[in-house]
Amino acid sequence: MSLRFEPILADGVAQVSYFLCDESAGCAAVFDPRPDVDIYLQKARQYNVTITHVFETHIHADFMSGSRELEARCKGSAKIHVSVEGDATYGFAHEPVREGDEFTFGQVTIKAKHTPGHTPEHLSYLLSDTHAGEPWGIMTGDSLFVDSMGRPDLLGDEKTEELTRALYNTMREVFCKLGDEVIVYPCHAAGSACGPDIGDRMHSTIGYEKKHNPFMQLTSYDDFKKAVQENAPPVPTHYPKLKKLNAKGPKTYGHTPQVSSLSVKEFENEMKNTNTIVIDTRDMLAFGGGHIEGALNIGQRPILSVWAGWLIDMNAPILLVLPDDKELKRAVILLWRTGHTNFKGYLAGNMRAWQESGKQIKKLPQLSVHELNQNKEHYQPLDVRKDEEWQNGNIPDAAHIFLGDLPDKMNTLDNEQNLAVYCASGYRASIAASLLQKNGFQNVNSIPGSFTAWKAADLPIENKTKTLKK
């Protein structure tokens, strides 16, 4: 088989890039690459092809583009192709792509289709056999997702109406007019905030989406506008910054960003910079048992990318505390995906080195759901889940502040109360609790298992909003 077309999922940011090649022609293209580009180079070696084209469907806001990094690693064989529709401009060398432009890769022809709405410049790419006119697939970028559509509100209120209208027209005049058999290959899977309630499947068909995608069933613009506005998830704080960075052109490294190994003394010296953020990527129970005062506990799961994006400025100096030194590369890659590259070092020997040096250790109490229920008069539960999670049930008498909003809203909390912080499973709860502790809250407890454990223990649940107890 000579034709290869493979989706590549960047977990955490739930982003899907695509590798396309024709072995007989010896050429390959990559669409919407992430910054850790080794995977594309490995595939090129695997199939004995040369990457000649790097395409972007649009200027991304949710992850750092890897186009420039991949171009640099290809050492002259590849060029970046980006949309110049909608008067889009870029701060790096590129090949302009417009509506109707075609590119051939052996057996496959790629045709650009302007599909504005998520952004003004957005392109989708139709896939067809070189000797046949009808497309068999379409890479829809962030315009059409499985069970969902791209959001039109990321460029601010002044552009939202215009982009909503454009997105509606794209849906009705482009996607709805494609054949039912055309396969849909989106740029995101479930978990991304680039669209509401994106489905779990990695791809779909136009026919399936016409029948089941609620947005594609709306024939009235007013109904479409209402649905888009009512279902939009919160806009992550890093989106506007990443969009500007991706338009300007991210820095290239030629390798995964390098991070220095620091002794305990060197680590302490770096901590003296008041802007430095210490990220402890250990499990919440390990963090709770003992950590460096002021550290944020963003555990080393794929979702680390997203919460670092939400809560940490891309320019902030970062120090890392790892579960084990060998976990360094994975942590760096996850942070790189949302634009964090200002690494000042990692603690060599992790927390074992810190504690054996006789340094101060801070604890974050872990409270079981049973302890919380049995002593509920002594604690104020704080729910940091998303609004839709909160509305589907909560621990009785809980207050609610979404984790992404916590930095701006923690001043509404009483810092003398015994706070019992929970989310769905405990991961976000530990982030929130460590953030509160870092900001001077002394009576903070994290709930392992959180609402999942609460329900499993068959404890009381309420479905109405409660205010803080005074």
From TrEMBL:
The keyword Acyltransferase does not apply. InterPro entries: Metallo-B-lactamas, Mito_Persulfide_Diox, POD-like_MBL-fold, Rhodanese-like_dom, Rhodanese-like_dom_sf, RibonucZ/Hydroxyglut_hydro. Pfam families: Lactamase_B, Rhodanese. SUPFAM superfamilies: Metallo-hydrolase/oxidoreductase, Rhodanese/Cell cycle control phosphatase. One of its GO terms (molecular function) is sulfur dioxygenase activity. Keywords: Hydrolase, Metal-binding. One of its GO terms (biological process) is glutathione metabolic process. Residues 272-363, 375-463 form the Rhodanese domain. It comes from the Bacteria. PANTHER family: PERSULFIDE DIOXYGENASE ETHE1, PERSULFIDE DIOXYGENASE ETHE1, MITOCHONDRIAL. This is MBL fold metallo-hydrolase. It comes from Marixanthomonas spongiae.
